[in-house]
Write a structure and sequence with these properties.
The complex is a heterotrimer of chains A (about 325), B (about 500) and C (about 160).
Chain A: H1 2-17, E1 25-30, H2 37-51, E2 57-62, H3 69-78, E3 85-90, H4 91-99, E4 110-125, H5 132-141, E5 147-150, H6 156-167, E6 176-179, H7 185-191, E7 197-201, H8 202-210, E8 214-219, E9 241-248, H9 254-269, H10 271-280, E10 283-288, H11 289-309
Helix pairs in contact in A: 2-9, 2-10, 4-11, 6-11
Chain B: H1 3-14, H2 17-35, H3 41-48, H4 57-82, H5 91-102, H6 106-140, H7 144-156, H8 166-181, E1 183-184, E2 191-192, H9 206-225, H10 244-265, H11 273-286, H12 299-314, H13 316-322, H14 328-339, H15 346-351, H16 353-383, H17 389-408, H18 411-429, H19 435-457, H20 464-467, H21 469-497
Antiparallel strand pairs in B: 1-2
Helix pairs in contact in B: 1-16, 2-4, 2-16, 3-4, 3-14, 4-5, 4-6, 4-12, 4-14, 4-16, 5-6, 5-12, 6-10, 6-12, 6-13, 6-16, 7-19, 7-21, 8-19, 9-17, 9-18, 10-11, 10-12, 11-12, 17-18
Chain C: H1 5-25, H2 41-62, H3 71-74, H4 81-97, H5 103-117, H6 123-145
Helix pairs in contact in C: 1-2, 4-5, 5-6
The chains are: A alpha/beta (about 325), B mainly alpha (about 500), C mainly alpha (about 160).
């Protein structure tokens, strides 16, 4: 009874607002707890869209857990066909859905746009190997002796370590990967010299690289960044962006999708967004609509392969 | 380095009217989120981050820091009065604090926790002011093997909370260890005992267990076993304030709690809970009235409360000197710095000396404020207990469910909470202590993780735990703690015979 | 002397949890990786521990009951199943309704239910207090912290 009244109310409200903008009241699902990367990106991007009037009100809904698997499951189940619902997410979710064997997959939601990227960096303690070559030679000679510290198993950092091993012709399962949790655990293990090398987002390590407590050997971007040469430039054919993007609900019409994409584009072009990117040291990685959809498919394949090679998740 | 002039300069920043206001708002907010179970300082600061675009750096950072240590003051209040820890670092406080409240000594319990927090916060700030560089050096020597040894040492403290029956106490501990197993194994990404329930993949939150065992279990027990009994519930008898005897018994624990809590804050060893366990165990050992423990010993409130406050100030040491966050809240404070384009670290002390020292000075100011705020509140808080039992317990459950639901906004967690509440009820009915469950579920996963990390680094060589100096030292200490009472007993026996 | 049924059941329950964990641990790799200690090792330890402790409890229960637990005294504190049902119902209904009917309604029902379980029959007073308390918490969350608790059917009333 209650549900039916609600549905009727919603239908009435919908019919009433249809001629105007469909994106008056956006409901943004953030599949992570408040304070994390997706949360900040989502809230800042929503504000940017509001700043140029692309959307009016935004209501945030944090649904954290299992690398986004819980959030996306709820999004697919409860927002089907809702032209006002959007969801944040990113590369971590691609991996998370695979390793958690989630029933819901990213191809069930409607890609709107890729927004930002953060590149990864490989570091060593100040007393560690001088060059990437030195580190990789050591790895090739005795893989176990090189311990790689980074974020959780199967996450972006682990994936990068695996991709590097694969690119230099080593067995990815031979990577001695030591997962740490956030909150400085990995940083202190690297600075303290307890692991041989460290992998993480560049912004997380940047200050320690600047202060000389860590030495940066390579970044995962196509070209050098902040004076750190890229993997590709050093002959390791790997590129990995920790990207974040935004999705619409499943089952929305093409017109509704285009309207959301238009709103997103306005947000991306707003000065407020440029400001956010700069402040948070995110790189603009904008790619809208179908191109983004194809990008996700490719990433999905690549990540599934490497995770299977690392012994996480099935092919 | 001349610290005094810089500190003086810091006070000039902290004592401006505007910054005093920010400090006050932070302390008030912190107390509020501390009182509410489930809402922690980390989430609060995260949600307030957007104000960084409107407020200048020193004001915002002073406020955020105030929220952090203010929460430690507030968290103890509900622990003591309602047996419902507002923060997981105040779970230990609930054990003795609530017992004190049940014996009409809620006033002194709240007072010793507020004053203890003040003493600890202030001493820790002095430590932060003068000892930072040395403490950080020591902290970096801690790698996985050292942390493992530390966790093993922490496990010995469980003996202090086992209760009257070792068998049932150990049972509680192992149930806690079992709960700690649930979720994705951090080292391999494999799900363990999650039974394909997605909500269990991230494991079970300590807060859910604590609120379930304490608040919900307590309520179910009180309703279905004691409802018919006319029980004078937690009536105040005697003074609201601490007597001379209470002061005398609190001072030692305050100081020792601080000394335990502060260094723990400076290393990423898994939060402010562990130093509170250690402090509790230590006070129980040292206390002249060990028989009072479990029945409302004031030392058991004073020590852990000092420890959790000192620990929250301790996290500022690596944060400010290295830009290294050692707790969830510290990680968000770090991003607050970054919002202003500031990188905490040695350079910041030179380039933004006024800001850093202003922040440090604000800790002294904030602790005074919190003391002034909290002491008068004691009288008000204890009046809560005058609320009739039906309405009081109903209110507790509304807050408990809100906290657990609000954390992840998942109805699943509410049902989980109920199941754990039933467990808590059974444990209470059959004389199982609840605290070891919490100890087990916090220490178990940390110990396992650090052990496997160490072994991964050493490629399976167990000798890593004894070839590392600090680790060997800590393990040796553990052995002494375990063996000393046995040896003492033997000697006593011999003396008695001879 | 007859062993107390509750204690027997509880001991067997703990024994069963131990067996479940030990059994489950065999589905997890015990070795693997450079650590050579896989995700299956610690669960084995925990499982065996619980089985031993459960057996210990069972022995106590069969030989005169848990030490230090006075089953005679318990007889003077009979289980009030009606009160138990009121609390349990309150929490379960809260879990069922919080997302559909909304936080304020679910919390109010919980409040009234728990108060009833302690024998309070002042339905109107409890209802009013419950609504006010829930609305206050809701306000802090939604407007103070920007964390959206579900408004449910009361959504049209929101400012």
């Amino acid at each position: 009874m209650i549900a039916r009244t609600r549905a009727a109310l919603a239908a009435a409200a919908f019919a009433f607002t249809l001629p105007a903008l469909a994106v008056d009241n956006v409901k943004m699902l953030i599949p992570a707890n408040p304070g994390g990367g997706w949360d900040t990106t989502g809230r800042e991007f929503a504000k940017a869209m509001q700043s140029v009037g692309a959307v009016k009100n935004v209501q945030y809904d944090n649904k954290g857990g299992a690398a986004g698997a819980i959030g996306i499951a709820q999004f697919v189940n409860s927002s089907k066909g809702d032209p006002n619902a959007v969801m944040m997410g990113g590369l971590v979710m691609v991996g998370g859905l695979i390793t958690n064997k989630s029933a819901v997959q990213l191809n069930q939601v409607t890609p709107l746009a890729r927004l930002t990227s953060e590149w990864e960096v490989i570091v060593v303690p100040a007393s560690g190997p001088k060059t990437l070559k030195e580190l990789l030679d050591k790895f090739k000679a005795n893989p176990g002796s090189v311990s790689w510290g980074g974020g959780s198993a199967g996450g972006t950092d682990h994936i990068l370590a695996g991709l590097i091993a694969k690119a230099i012709g080593a067995d990815p399962t031979k990577v001695n990967y030591v997962p740490f949790k956030g909150g400085g655990e990995a940083v202190s293990a690297i600075i303290g010299g307890h692991v041989t090398a460290g992998v993480s987002g560049l912004s997380e390590f940047a200050q320690h690289i600047k202060s000389g407590k860590m030495r940066a050997l390579a970044v995962s971007s196509p070209k050098a960044l902040d004076g750190i040469p890229s993997l590709k430039e050093q002959g390791v054919d790997v590129e990995l962006a920790n990207w974040r993007g935004i999705w619409g609900a499943p089952g929305i019409t093409k017109a509704q999708r285009d309207e959301l994409i238009a709103a997103v584009e306005k947000g991306v072009k707003s000065p407020a967004w440029k400001e956010s990117l700069k402040k948070n040291e995110w790189e603009d990685f904008y790619q809208p609509g179908d191109a983004f959809g194809k990008f996700i498919d490719d990433e999905n394949k690549r990540i599934a392969d490497i995770l299977a090679a690392l012994g996480l998740g099935k092919k | 380095m001349d610290i005094w002039p810089q500190l003086l300069q810091g006070f000039q920043v902290a004592l401006t009217f505007q910054n005093l206001m920010f400090c006050l708002i932070g302390c008030l907010l912190g107390t509020a989120v501390g009182v509410l179970p489930g809402v922690g300082p980390a989430v609060t600061v995260a949600l307030l981050l957007p104000i960084t675009t409107k407020v200048e750096a020193s004001g915002a950072l002073i406020m955020f820091a105030g929220i952090y240590y203010g929460a430690m003051y507030g968290g103890s209040t509900t622990s003591i009065l309602l047996n419902t820890p507002g923060e997981s670092a105040t779970i230990v406080t609930a054990m003795e604090g609530n017992q004190m409240a049940k014996r009409g000594r809620a006033g002194p319990a709240l007072a010793t926790s507020a004053i203890g927090s003040f003493v600890a916060g202030t001493i820790a700030t002095v430590g932060l002011t003068f000892l930072s560089p040395y403490v950080v050096e020591l902290g970096l020597k801690f790698g996985p093997p050292e942390y493992f040894a530390l966790m093993v040492l922490a496990f010995t403290t469980v003996s202090a909370v086992l209760g009257e029956s070792t068998l049932r106490g150990l049972c509680s501990l192992f149930l806690g260890l079992a709960i700690g197993l649930v979720g994705i194994d951090n080292q391999t990404g494999q799900a363990r005992f999650a039974f394909d329930v997605p909500q269990l993949l991230d494991g079970i939150e300590v807060v859910t267990i604590a609120v379930g065992l304490f608040a919900v279990g307590e309520t179910i027990y009180a309703a279905s076993k004691l409802g018919s009994v006319e029980e004078k519930l937690e009536q105040m008898t005697g003074s609201v304030w601490m007597k001379w005897e209470d002061w005398k018994r609190s001072i030692g624990p305050w100081i020792r709690g601080t000394l335990i809590g502060f260094p723990f804050g400076t290393i990423p060893a898994g939060g402010a809970e562990i130093p509170t366990f250690l402090s509790y165990a230590m006070e129980k050992k040292l206390c002249k009235h060990p028989e009072e423990f479990g029945k409302g010993a004031i030392e058991g409130v004073a020590g852990p409360e000092a420890a959790n406050n000192a620990s929250s100030t301790g996290t500022m040491v690596p944060l400010l000197t290295l830009g290294l966050p050692t707790s969830a809240t510290a990680a968000i404070l770090l991003s607050a710095f970054q919002q202003y384009g500031l990188q905490p670290g040695p350079l910041l002390f030179e380039t933004n000396s006024a800001l850093v020292w202003g922040l440090i000075a604000s800790f002294y100011v904030g602790n005074v404020m919190l003391l002034v705020l909290n002491l008068p509140l004691v009288g008000l808080w204890v009046k809560l207990l005058a609320i009739p039992k039906p309405q009081l317990y109903a209110g507790i459950l509304v807050f408990a469910t809100m906290g657990v639901y609000g954390m992840r906004q998942s109805a699943f967690d509410v049902f989980l909470l109920y199941a754990i509440g039933l467990g808590g009820f059974l444990m209470r009915r059959y004389g199982f202590p609840a605290a070891p469950v919490i100890v087990g579920m916090i220490l178990g996963p940390l110990a396992e993780e650090q052990m496997r990390r160490s072994l991964s680094i050493s490629q399976g060589d167990w000798m890593i735990f004894v070839t590392h100096g600090i680790s060997a030292l800590l393990l040796g200490l553990t052995l002494v703690i375990l063996i000393a009472p046995l040896v003492a007993r033997q000697l006593k026996k011999k003396n008695a015979q001879g | 002397m007859k062993a107390p049924a509750g204690q027997l059941a509880l001991s067997i329950g703990i024994l069963a949890i131990g067996i479940l964990i030990l059994g489950g641990s065999f589905f997890l790799p015990a070795g693997g990786g450079y650590a050579q200690v896989g995700p299956g090792v610690v669960p084995k330890f925990v499982g065996v521990g619980l089985i031993l402790l459960g057996a210990g409890l069972l022995r106590e229960a069969l030989t005169g009951g848990y030490r230090g637990v006075d089953e005679e005294a318990e007889k003077h504190l009979p289980m009030d199943w009606r009160a138990f049902a009121w609390v349990s119902g309150g929490i379960i209904i809260y879990g069922l309704l919080v997302e559909s009917a909304g936080f304020v309604i679910a919390s109010t029902i919980l409040y009234v239910g728990v108060a009833r379980s302690f024998g309070s029959r002042r339905w109107i007073l409890n209802g009013v207090v419950g609504v006010l308390l829930a609305a206050f918490v809701f306000g802090i969350f939604n407007y103070g912290l920007g964390l959206t608790l579900p408004p449910g059917v009361l959504k049209p009333l929101l400012p």
